[in-house]
Design goal:
By secondary structure, this protein is α+β, with helices and mostly antiparallel strands. The protein has 2 domains: about 120 residues, Beta Complex (Beta-clip-like); about 40 residues. The protein has a 3-stranded antiparallel beta sheet with strand order 3-9-8, with no helix packed on it. A 3-stranded antiparallel beta sheet has the order 4-6-5, covered by helices on one side. It has a two-stranded antiparallel sheet with strand order 1-2.
Length: about 170
């Protein structure tokens, strides 16, 4: 007999690598996961970030949580420009993610990482959220359609030139 897990999320493959996925539904404003790790002064966190550490969560002007340990499940919550969860500061320097709206089972849990992180590490061209992927696909489709129209126009002009050259002979 298989044990039934009461955990409401799981780690799985996502478009951005590994992600956190709901296994059971979350109601709006329901607790999802806590961002855990060592509490560091911001100056030390800045030094670690300069050496490539990316799982830093700045709690306030004084403290940052180093969430780089794998037991910190919140580190698997990926960025989205249309997130379904948000970070909320709790008592003490503590951060939890809560659902912004109803999250269905097998849906990836995402948050907005903020402008600073986005511009430093992700940028618009490398964002892998659904919204940005759709936007890039639409842009690509428009570029292809424009190129196809231009090619048809060039072919039409070439045919007209040949026809005009034949009439002159």
């Amino acid at each position: 007999m298989q044990a039934v897990s009461n955990r409401k999320h799981r780690i799985g493959r996502s478009s951005a690598g590994l992600g956190l996925f709901a296994t059971k539904p979350f109601r709006k404003r329901e607790y999802v996961v806590t961002y855990r790790g060592r509490l560091l002064p911001n100056a030390e966190a800045d030094r670690l970030e300069a050496r490539g550490s990316r799982y830093m969560f700045e709690v306030n002007t004084r403290w940052t949580i180093d969430g780089s340990k794998r037991w910190n499940l919140a580190r698997y919550v990926n960025h989205s420009c249309r997130p379904n969860a948000e970070a909320v500061e709790r008592k003490g320097p503590s951060i939890v993610y809560v659902a912004r709206w109803r999250i269905k089972p097998e849906e990836e849990i995402t948050v907005d990482y903020g402008k600073d992180y986005f511009s430093a590490f992700i940028t618009k061209s490398r964002c892998r959220c659904v919204k940005c992927k759709e936007r890039r696909a639409d842009q690509q489709a428009r570029r292809r359609a424009r190129a196809k129209r231009a090619q048809r126009k060039r072919l039409k002009l070439r045919r007209e030139k040949r026809a005009a050259a034949k009439r002159k002979r």
